[in-house]
Design goal:
The structure holds 2 protein chains of 2 kinds.
Chain A lengths: L5 E13 L3 H12 L4 E4 L7 H4 L28 E2 L8 E2 L9 E2 L18 H4 L13 H15 L24 H12 L5 E2 L36 H10 L4 E4 L2 E8 L5 E8 L5 E11 L3 H10 L24 E8 L19 E3 L14 E7 L12 H4 L17 H11 L3 E8 L8 E9 L5 E6 L4 H20 L3 E2 L41 E2 L2 E6 L14 H20 L4
Parallel strand pairs in A: 1-2, 1-10, 2-7, 4-16, 10-19
Antiparallel strand pairs in A: 3-5, 6-12, 8-9, 9-10, 11-14, 11-17, 12-13, 13-14, 15-16, 18-19
Chain B lengths: L2 H8 L3 H10 L22 H12 L5 H14 L14 H11 L4 H19 L8 H11 L10 H19 L2 H7 L14 H6 L8
The chains are: A alpha/beta, B mainly alpha.
Chain lengths: 578, 209
């Protein structure tokens, strides 16, 4: 007799949510607080920053001193995952490249993200250059939800009145660090505007919220926060939603597909338990996907039935297409003025203290759209790799006696150089708009399954001249800022042979657009409320619905859209439309 | 949560951990806690903990190699008026671990150590650890300055670059090294901005963002 069986639950939930990141977490929070009985399936394991954050650990508490051997962003980074997961491959096609980062844990990638929280602006929703499709919604449609997210989660920043960089409801921002003042001065000379950063870090208490405490300035948001002082979906949305008594979370639940009825409506989800490999089927009145842009597309494409032969919500054939990440390129070096600088604690917050929103007019440029600049540097906690550049840098500037010395060395004089150069580092990275293209996509690889037997994604992604010219512009701008601030560049000067240092697609971990929304069911998978055109009780709340991402990091928009979708669901249920 | 509670929350004493565990309701899961060989460490995946334990139980370098690494590490970072030497900070032990953690270091390190011994043997008819300090330094001087090193010493330069990087990584990530370099963060505090005397030192009093 075969042991194989599928455990079917007789409970019918009001909703099943797949994924516990920003989108899934927000949908769960809104629905559970409205009294809906919700089941959340998370492919990874349980994670509560209060217990599991590696925050406040010293480098010597890691045998590899914080190196990224098992976690790409270092041993203390709050990510159970990475670019490659054991037993869960993905493939690429036609010698193109795509790097896919997955976090298998409650809260997903929101546990370790940079907390840089930018609203998309009016022009991002309705581009004026005609190059990409407009969203079916405007900034005015989303603004009330951005506002609510600001109040609920907490964000610092300053009101600047920049049209396409809309202001939010801001808490007090952190003051700039010393190297950031040098950046401000140098960037202005180079014609680049620098403003206060915008980050999802609570710098003030939120009235009525007893679970979260304000930031205490350790600068370690990437490790997630034990006092819930920054935004992670786990700490701010999922765990509070569980506490309402209306949300049940099942971890280690890897979803295979959405099950549909004979009439084509979604009736549940099948999943495999990652630990014991048992098969389950759970049912609900509606299904909400928030597994991430690519993982949700994978689930839809794998959910084939006689009603949905092309995959669920895919009569249009657009699912998987228009995949786009942000562009990224960077430059780094050091500020000789800061040699032998005074020591003090400048950890600050773990998100950015300053940044440069896009500042130019495309009419005068050879590429469309734009990018913002994020800056780094300062007296950071030492970790693996510390001092690696000192034996090069000590040959680039005169010593204390004004004499040049030979790069390299050892002994007392090298030890002195490590002290001398500490905290002089400065760097900048661009994050720009990549064009959403039909020909950049993910699809099901017909030949490959993962260790659960689920067909995997195959990516096809190529940068085009728009992105490459943008990266070239980034390099020129960064070098000119570095020059104006009298910094010494130590990173490699990137040219056309490396696409001007343009990172591989996926590397910025802002991938969106695979389940796009639109008014026309022939050209889009979802309507403007992220409801499937072909399946009325199916919704998507991650970055899949994005039509075209601006140069703004995606999370704040995911949160706003997920809240909007959840409220729409509640309203439609009231009207008995779903 | 008030400030006192939040400070408590970031402490990791047994007492506060218990308080926290009680304070945080765990969501219901269908999954029974798996029985595992090693105890689950908060915030780490089981396979990470098991991998660390396995690496720690293995030995890569021979006694002779470790002795050579110790001599070299102390040449790179010697004791001075501010802090101790590389071996005082257990840098050789760190290097032993890291080459198992990152196997790409293994051949360059083992081969580099051998290269060094052969160089030393050809010149002084003894391995590096048995050479006098003066003899050791005469070889180090030829591989510690990449730009002026002779072409035939390039292999030694590559090895010394690696050795120097690993030594710095190992030293400045210890309590001794962090104190030496003057990193004073990683404590709950407020961030009032750059101190006034520092602003003045750099003429940044009037720069505002």
């Amino acid at each position: 007799m075969s042991d194989f069986q599928i455990k079917k639950s007789s409970t019918v939930y009001d909703a099943i949510i797949v994924g516990s990141g920003a989108g899934g977490g927000m949908a769960a929070y809104v629905l559970a607080n409205a009294g809906q009985k919700v089941l959340m399936l998370e492919a990874g394991q349980y994670f509560d920053p209060r217990i599991d954050a590696q925050q406040m650990k010293w480098p010597w508490e890691s045998p590899r001193r914080g190196a990224g051997t098992t976690r790409p962003f270092g041993d203390f980074d709050a990510s159970y995952g990475g670019w490659q997961l054991d037993g869960e491959p993905y493939t690429t096609k036609d010698k193109t490249e795509f790097e896919w980062f997955r976090s298998r844990m409650l809260g997903g990638r929101t546990n370790h993200w940079g907390r840089i929280s930018l609203r998309m602006g009016p022009i991002d929703f309705k581009p004026t250059d005609g190059l990409t499709d407009p969203w079916p919604i405007t900034y005015a449609d989303v603004k009330p939800f951005y506002d609510k997210v600001d109040r609920m989660i907490g964000i610092y920043g300053t009101a600047e009145g920049i049209e396409n960089e809309p202001d939010g409801i801001f808490m007090k921002p952190p003051k700039p660090r010393l190297n950031e003042l040098f950046i401000k001065k140098g960037a202005e000379k180079a014609g680049v505007r620098v403003i206060t950063g915008r980050g999802a870090v609570m710098t003030e208490e939120i009235k009525g919220n007893k679970d979260r405490a304000p930031c205490f300035y350790c600068g370690q948001c990437g490790r997630s926060c034990k006092v819930y002082g920054d935004f992670s979906s786990s700490s701010c949305l999922v765990i509070p939603a569980v506490n309402t008594g209306n949300l049940t979370v099942i971890t280690d639940a890897m979803v295979r597909e959405v099950i549909t009825d004979k009439d084509g409506t979604a009736k549940g989800v099948s999943y495999v338990n990652r630990k014991d490999l048992q098969e389950y089927q759970v049912n609900a009145k509606l299904v909400i996907l928030g597994a991430s842009a690519c993982e949700s597309a994978r689930i839809l494409l794998n959910s084939k039935s006689s009603q949905h032969p092309n995959g669920l919500a895919n009569n249009s054939g657009v699912v998987g297409k228009y995949l786009h990440d942000s562009t990224g390129a960077s430059v780094s070096g050091f500020l000789p003025q800061l040699l032998d600088r005074k020591r003090y604690n400048e950890d600050g917050v773990g998100s950015v203290h300053i940044y440069s929103p896009w500042w130019l007019d495309n009419k005068k440029l050879d590429f469309p759209r734009g990018y913002h600049i994020e800056y780094g540097g300062g007296m950071r906690m030492p970790s693996y790799g510390f001092g690696g550049g000192v034996s090069t840098m000590n040959g680039m500037v005169p010593d204390r006696n004004g004499k040049m010395k030979e790069a390299g060395g050892y002994g007392a004089s090298l030890k002195d150089d490590y002290r001398r150069f500490y905290g002089t580092g400065v760097g900048m990275a661009g994050r720009g708009t990549a064009i959403a293209r039909e020909d950049n996509y993910c699809e099901i690889d017909p030949n490959v399954v993962d260790r659960f037997g689920i067909p995997v994604l195959r990516f096809h992604y190529k940068w085009a001249k728009e992105e490459i010219l943008q990266a070239k512009h980034m390099q020129e701008t960064f070098l000119s800022i570095m020059k104006e601030m009298d910094a010494v560049v130590t990173s490699k000067i990137e040219g056309p042979e490396t696409n001007y240092g343009l990172e591989a697609p996926g590397k910025i971990i802002h991938e969106v657009g695979t389940i796009r929304m639109g008014d026309d069911p022939k050209k889009s998978a979802l309507n403007k409320y992220c409801q499937a055109h072909d399946c009325k009780n199916l919704f998507v709340v991650d970055a899949g619905p994005f039509v075209q991402q601006g140069d703004k990091n995606a999370t704040w928009t995911i949160l706003a859209l997920a809240m909007r979708t959840a409220e729409y669901i509640l309203a439609e249920k009231k009207k008995q439309n779903i | 949560m008030n400030r006192r509670d939040s400070l408590k929350a970031i402490g990791l004493t047994a007492l506060t951990t218990t308080v926290l565990l009680e304070a945080c309701k765990q969501p219901a899961t269908d999954t029974a806690a798996a029985t595992t060989k090693t105890e689950k460490e908060a915030g780490r995946e089981q396979w990470e903990t098991e991998r660390d334990e396995k690496l720690k139980s293995e030995t890569f370098f021979t006694k002779h190699e470790m002795a050579t690494i110790t001599v070299l590490a102390n040449i790179i970072i010697p004791k001075d008026g501010v802090s101790g030497s590389a071996s005082d900070a257990k840098v050789p032990e760190f290097i032993e671990f890291i080459v198992k953690d990152m196997p790409e270091h293994q051949i360059p390190m083992r081969g580099g150590l051998k290269w060094l011994d052969i160089q030393c043997f050809n010149r002084y008819e003894k391995p590096f650890v048995e050479a006098s300090t003066k003899e050791q330094i005469s070889i180090v001087d030829e591989i510690a300055y990449p730009k002026k090193a002779k072409p035939e010493m390039q292999a030694g330069v590559s090895f010394f670059n690696r050795m120097r990087s690993l030594t710095a990584s190992g030293f400045y990530t210890t309590e001794m090294g962090v104190k030496d370099i003057g990193y004073v963060g990683n404590v709950p505090n407020q961030w009032p901005g750059v101190p006034d005397d520092v602003l003045k030192q750099y003429g940044m009093e009037n720069v505002k963002v």
